[in-house]
Automatic annotation (TrEMBL):
Keywords: Metal-binding. It comes from Pseudonocardia eucalypti. Gene3D superfamilies: NIF3 (NGG1p interacting factor 3)-like. This is GTP cyclohydrolase 1 type 2 homolog. NCBIfam families: YbgI_SA1388. Pfam families: DUF34_NIF3.
């Protein structure tokens, strides 16, 4: 029978820990590498919902994209939120393994899974980080045929898991787009890279007002206007990676270990309300 250590080896081959950013916390959080593993659950977030799903489903390992203990801690007492989760994992005999920014930069990685969900063939990274031009943050690709920004926004909404946040875009709805950049998770640090790449649209998550506004004013590069923006929920942009990571495990163990994907929506936003589109509304009138 495969061990937890065997599964970790397969995951770290696909997502080398050396690719993680210096501030990140990746790898085994809890669990015995010698323990046998036959079932694994893969999720974006290691939260109460996904931990209970792992326990109830008989998994011996939860693989998450986001770390549970990203900031330094001095203890994990059971009367504190994260300590309670660690105790639940340990008492249930479930290990926790995290692949975060190393999965972001791996080839294939988080943004490859996002691009595949969108039907976008990848040509390379948006922000290369090695001489081969294969590793790095984000991905660039070209749609098989041009489509409008409005159609691409609808494509994203149909391809990704539904959230209260939904999908929003900045730019002319009729603008034709074909060359696309994507970045799973918060991607406003790569706005300048999207401009330099000369893409028609940049899809990422967690775009803030001022960086987005300043991006749209930047003017693009000669002959190409500033890329339009499509902003999706952070959780939704990274969820396609779960199937990729599960496939890494299933392909490595060929039935001896069964990896499945959690579809529990752990996006923190639970409600959304539309508003009238007219800008003429004036509550003071």
């Amino acid at each position: 029978m495969a061990t937890l250590g065997d599964v970790i080896t397969a995951l770290e081959t696909a997502y080398p820990p050396g690719l993680a950013e210096a501030w990140d916390a990746v790898g085994l959080v809890c669990g015995d590498p010698a323990a046998p593993v036959s079932r694994v659950l893969v999720a974006v977030d290691p939260v109460e919902e996904t931990i209970e799903e792992a326990v109830e489903g008989g998994a011996q390992l939860l693989v998450s994209h986001h770390p549970l203990l990203l900031r330094g801690v001095h203890g994990v007492p059971a009367d504190q939120p994260k300590g309670r989760l660690v105790h639940r994992l340990i008492t249930a005999g479930v290990g926790l393994f995290t692949a975060h920014t190393n999965a972001d930069s791996a080839d294939p990685g988080v943004s490859d899974a996002l691009a595949a969900a969108l039907g976008l063939p990848v040509t390379g990274p948006l922000v290369p980080r090695d001489p081969t031009g294969r590793l790095g943050l984000g991905r660039i690709g070209e749609l098989p045929e041009p489509e409008t920004l409005a159609d691409f926004t609808r494509r994203a909404a149909a391809a990704l898991p539904a959230t209260a946040w939904g999908v929003r875009a900045a730019g002319d709805p009729d603008r034709p787009v074909r060359r696309v950049a994507v970045c799973g998770g918060a991607g406003d640090s790569a706005l300048a890279d999207a401009i330099a790449a000369g893409v028609d649209v940049y899809l990422t998550a967690d775009l803030r007002h001022h960086p987005a506004s300043e991006h749209l004013l930047a003017g693009g590069i000669p002959g190409r206007p500033t890329p339009a923006l499509v902003d999706v929920a952070h959780w939704a942009s990274e969820h396609p990676w779960c199937a990729q990571a599960a496939a890494v495990i299933n392909n490595a163990f060929r039935g001896n270990v069964e990896a499945s994907v959690s579809w529990r929506r752990t996006d923190p936003w639970t409600l959304g309300a539309g508003q009238p589109e007219s800008s003429e509304r004036n509550p003071a009138q």
